[in-house]
Amino acid sequence: MERIIKFGKTIRNNWKKSAVGVVALCYGATIVREKYQINVLMQAACKEAAKYGDSPIPMDRNPTVVTVILNPVANKRKAKRDFEKYCEPLLHLAGLQVDVIQTTSEGNAKEIVETLRGTEAIIVAGGDGTFSETVTGLLRRNDDANQFPLGILPLGRTNSLGNSLFHGGKGVDRVKQLIEASMAIIKGNTVWKDAMRIEPIVTEEEIPSKPIYAMTSLEWGAFRDTMVKRDKYWFLGSLRDYATFIFNGYKESLNWNCSGVIKYTPPCPGCNNCIRKRPEIKRKWSFFMPSTQTLQPDSKNVVNPDCATSQELCFKTCDFRIRTRNFEHTDVPSLSIVIGKNKYSYSEFISEGWSRLKGFDENTKHIEARTVELLPNEFGPEVVIGIDREEFEVKPVKITLLPKIVKLFCNPD
Asked: Residue ranges of the DAGKc domain (predicted)?
């Protein structure tokens, strides 16, 4: 009893140190609990992956070869560590022959994929930027390389499409997301997704450049410019994104005046005008399960007089977006053109920005299109747009929807 009384007096006389000690003890207990849960998840995932690795393969074929395009500096240089800790062991246990190629500079993933040979699947280990470069390199090829599946390991700080395929989070949830993405590759379930081809509109004297391909969005305006600046407020932790709108909502350096003309054609389920032939090739391996893609009806003889009808619209806004419908279930593939308000007050801008951070978007009205010609009034190196979170110079471009063009590994559901 005397010891308990003495212990209580010590805590009362040193309450500040005691409070710090309790906080440190709780934090340590949380870390230990999180590591234990991660170990349990990895043990279960390793056992499941090993079942695939223990399965016999035919004598006349080698193990399945997959190539990993790894961005080692993604997510503040944590991507390589997370890949080696949570993803690579599962791929090896499943019996895959894993070739890892690390990118060395911006645009390097594009160059790697354009010349890649001798692989049966490509896995992107990085964020939106690495994935966008990989898709561009893949679709620039004209040898039907897009028939091979593409895997996403969402190891970057921003993973738009990866988070839509595999539920993300922090801590244990993030590890669970990486395990799900790795197991989707091992199980071989696939789904076809849309992409958009973005090519500059040039005059006869100019030399046309290669097109860029994107799978999520093209963004132009003050909201995009604000989100780009959020890394400057890293010291605010979880409040960083909200503070970004407070500190930048009044700045004239943002693109408050996005104006120009768009010419667009309506969506089309497929006809003799817009059909793009994509021949099927027989797989030479039996590891992957059959694709979940359904057979599309022959559109060569379908006539749609409205398909080539073009409409023109002048716009002036501070929020211009063109998005694919990869995050939605639609009967007719289309692009979604969103043109926001022309002017926002400081309070309205902050309110709208915070709503978007929570997943709510007031701009519910949109224009559906198959092709879009964007003709901005002002363009040059000082005006930039975001294409799949990567910055490009604003210039006249033509955006064309390519429905069901990229095959991605996904969960069975």
From this structure: 61-201
